[in-house]
C-alpha cells in the first residue's frame, strides 16, 4: 500500500508543525552535504523557524562571508551599502540629539547665551522653572517617604520597648513569689507545705538582727 499524498499547506497544530520542520530541516541539510561531497559544490543554507530559531549549513570549504562576497560579485550588487547608509543616517540623528542636549545643559548653566533670542530665553526660563518644580516635588516626595518610614520604625520600637517593660515587670513579680536560685549568699531549699508543689526557701545571713535584738546566726528560717 503506497503512501498517501500530503497536501502542501500550513500545519495548524504547533507541535506537529515543529516536528515536521525539524525532520525536513535535517533532510535538507543531509541533501546539501551530499551535494557538496558528490559535486564539489559550494552550498549555503540559512533557515529560521517560526519561533525565530536560527539554523545554518555551509560547505566546509567556504565561510559565510566568502559566500556573501561571491554572491554579490556574481550579481553585481552590494548587500551592505543600503544597511550602511541607514546606519550613517541613524548616527547623524544621534549626533544631532547629543549636540542639542549639550547646548541645553550649557545654557542652563548660564553659558552659550550670546546668540539666544528673547523668545528662546523665555522658553529656557520656563523649562528651567518646570524642571525646578519637578525636582522640588521629587525631593519632597522622597523626604515624606523617609519621614513616614522613620515614624513607623519609631512606633515599632516604642511598642517593642513597652512589651519588654511588661515582660520584665512580670518576671520581677514571678521572682518575688517563685524559686530563689542558689547564687552568692543564697542557698536553695525545698519545702513542701499543705501538699502544694510550690517551693520556697529563704535563709537569713549570720548576725541578721531580729525584732528583739537577737539573731538567728547561721540557722535557717523555714516557712511552713
From TrEMBL:
One of its GO terms (cellular component) is nucleus. It comes from the Eukaryota. SUPFAM superfamilies: SRF-like (SSF55455). It comes from Manihot esculenta. PROSITE patterns: K_BOX (PS51297), MADS_BOX_1 (PS00350), MADS_BOX_2 (PS50066). The keyword Hydrolase does not apply. This is Uncharacterized protein. Residues 84-174 form the K-box domain. PANTHER family: SERUM RESPONSE FACTOR HOMOLOG (PTHR48019).
Amino acid at each position: 500500500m503506497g503512501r498517501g499524498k500530503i497536501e502542501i499547506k500550513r500545519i495548524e497544530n504547533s507541535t506537529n508543525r515543529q516536528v515536521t520542520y525539524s525532520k525536513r530541516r535535517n533532510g535538507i541539510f543531509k541533501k546539501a552535504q551530499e551535494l557538496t561531497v558528490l559535486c564539489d559544490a559550494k552550498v549555503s543554507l540559512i533557515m529560521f523557524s517560526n519561533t525565530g530559531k536560527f539554523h545554518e549549513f555551509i560547505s566546509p570549504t567556504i565561510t559565510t562571508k566568502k559566500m556573501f562576497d561571491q554572491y554579490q560579485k556574481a550579481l553585481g550588487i552590494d548587500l551592505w551599502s543600503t544597511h550602511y547608509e541607514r546606519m550613517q543616517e541613524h548616527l547623524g540623528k544621534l549626533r544631532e540629539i547629543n549636540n542639542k542636549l549639550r547646548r541645553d545643559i550649557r545654557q542652563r548653566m548660564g553659558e552659550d547665551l550670546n546668540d539666544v533670542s528673547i523668545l528662546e530665553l523665555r522658553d529656557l526660563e520656563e523649562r528651567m522653572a518646570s524642571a525646578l518644580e519637578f525636582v522640588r516635588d521629587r525631593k519632597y516626595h522622597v523626604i515624606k517617604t523617609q519621614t513616614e518610614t522613620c515614624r513607623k520604625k519609631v512606633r515599632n520600637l516604642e511598642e517593642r520597648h513597652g512589651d519588654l517593660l511588661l515582660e520584665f515587670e512580670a518576671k520581677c513579680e514571678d521572682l518575688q513569689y517563685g524559686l530563689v536560685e542558689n547564687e552568692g549568699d543564697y542557698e536553695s531549699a525545698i519545702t513542701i507545705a499543705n501538699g502544694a508543689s510550690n517551693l520556697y526557701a529563704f535563709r537569713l545571713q549570720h548576725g541578721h538582727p531580729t525584732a528583739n535584738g537577737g539573731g538567728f546566726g547561721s540557722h535557717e528560717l523555714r516557712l511552713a
